[in-house]
Amino acid sequence: MTTTMSRPTTRSTPKLDAPEVVKGLRTAFGTGQTRSYEWRRDQLQAMKRMLVEREPEFMDALAADMGKPPTEAYAADVGFVVAEIDYTLRHLRRWMRPQRVYAPLVTKPSRARLMREPLGVVLVIAPWNYPVHLLLAPVVGALAAGNCVAAKPSEVTANTSALLARLIPEYLDTDCIKVVEGGVTETQALLAEQFDHIFYTGNATVARVVMEAAAKHLTPVTLELGGKSPVIVDETANLEVAARRVAWGKFLNAGQTCIAPDYVLVAKPVADKFVEHVRRAVFDFYGHEPKDSPDYARIVDARHWQRLVGLLDSGTAAIGGQHDEKSRYLAPTVLRDVAPDSPAMQEEIFGPVLPVLTVDSVDEAISFVNDRDKPLALYLFSESKDVQERVLANTSSGGVCINATVFHVVVPGLPFGGVGPSGQGAYHGRSTFETFSHTKSVLHKRARPDLALAYPPYTERKDKLLRRFL
Ligand code: NAD
Could you read off the pLDDT of 275-307 as tens digits, one per residue? Predict the structure, then answer.
């Protein structure tokens, strides 16, 4: 593969004045222009135009940052956001409509409604692994809900960050959407300001920094984090299909996916066969030499590459293991003989290294998962309905795929998010709109009749009626 990876030094918004940025957004929000359906629709259409018209530039930036194969760059970054925009535009009018709810007899005559109103000025902080998708998908919902947005792309994918900073003002309302480039200093300058919501995607260490800053202003947060997403493969699974789907989900973006299968717990009697099918799948996907495949990405930077190469000592490389520092290449790798207390089993791997551990039973696999942090995703490969129900009933995770990996992320009706250490809050489809809206509870009454039922002085009759009609 000829990679054109180039790394400009970290870019920052020149002389960032965070209070000015937020003040500007607040002034724009105060004009009320973002509240109309038309404004929201126009912004979403403009964002779609930007993604469609400038697709080649996005592809180039993603290839330069991490050697993203064009198909993956489209499906998981640019095209993903286009699909979110289309879905949102199809439903937005309905989502914005107030919703009637039941009002008890004691309130009658009355009308109770839920109204979705924008939160105000929101901050979206994105990581590097899907740098277009993870910045813009939340922004789609934030704009759909009528907010003004400060958007902070990851400095790690500097080419994509620069492109977003250049194109967003070209297409979208510059008063209401500001892109702030930079790293820790700029993010922390933003976090010192008061927002109405903070949407953070990234690692749990920085999530604590975000939460602490948010606490100062009592700002609500959505945290989209990561963790070790397990795969359970039982004896009834179609091993060939399981291996292909696990290999695809794991080696997509060279494993740098928050919901990548992190490790496999496979039933002992079928473990060897499963690994052989993974070997076949890797060969089918990337050929003899994955390094030369145009469909295999690179590790984002030297720090992550070194961290991942360090994990290879956690077991025996049954597949892959080859690596090259200069091109930040790490082969699709399967590790066996991995001890549960080895480094590869301590932290989220976030790279193309897949430990395969064996278990004696599904119950052992369930206990293994439950002894660790609640994962962002859990994948089960089994043809047994009983096992499927047992795993669903006895484990907790942000999401689950049965006989698949990663694909739950593309279903807009399935809110995407973690639980406990893997995150809080969720988005995609309508839930992104809900995340960035306040649901205001409204009760309408007319002046007349003005029944004295609830007013003192209380009488036995009033008491009796209230008990009946409440
Ligand atoms: P990153 O290094 O790009 O950091 C994320 C953001 O935090 C960046 O915008 C960065 O500027 C900012 N940041 C970094 N350090 C900071 C600090 N000290 N103070 C304030 N801001 C700071 O990305 P990352 O965290 O390495 O991303 C990888 C992690 O994100 C993995 O754990 C992965 O599982 C998780 N992730 C989760 C999802 C999801 O949707 N749940 C998606 C992608 C990635």
Answer: 999 999 999 999 999 999 999 999 999 999 999
Pick the atom of ligand 1 nearest to 183's CA.
Answer: 11
Task: Mark out the alpha helices in 323-459 (DSSP H runs).
Answer: 362-370, 385-394, 430-435
For the chain, what is the domain count?
2
Q: Is 128 in the pocket of ligand 1 (CB under 6 A)?
A: yes
Q: 196 is written with which tokens? A: 């109405």
Ligand 1 centroid, distance to 470 Cα (angstroms)? 49
* Strands laid side by side in the 99-101 sheet: 99-101, 111-118, 437-444
Nearest to 85 by CA among 47, 33, 131: 47
Kindly state whether residue 445 falls inside one of the protein's structural domains. Answer: no
Prediction pTM value: 0.95
Regarding the beta carbon of 428 and ligand 1, being less than 6 Å apart is answered no
**Closest Cα to atom 5 of ligand 1:** 127
Residue-wise pLDDT for 308-324, tens only, equals 999 999 999 999 999 99
Contact yes or no for 206/226 (Cβ under 8 A):
no
- Give me the CATH number covering residue 116: 3.40.605.10
Measured distance between the N- and C-terminal CA atoms of the chain, rounded to whole angstroms: 71
Whether 137 and 178 map to the same domain: the answer is: yes
Q: What is the CATH number of the domain that holds 394?
A: 3.40.309.10
Residues of the domain holding 353: 230-417
The answer to whether the beta carbons of residues 422 and 398 sit under 8 Å apart is yes
User: Does residue 60 lie within any of the structural domains?
Assistant: yes
Does 224 participate in catalysis according to the annotation?
yes
Same structural domain, 396 and 248: yes
Atom of ligand 1 nearest to the CA of 204: 32
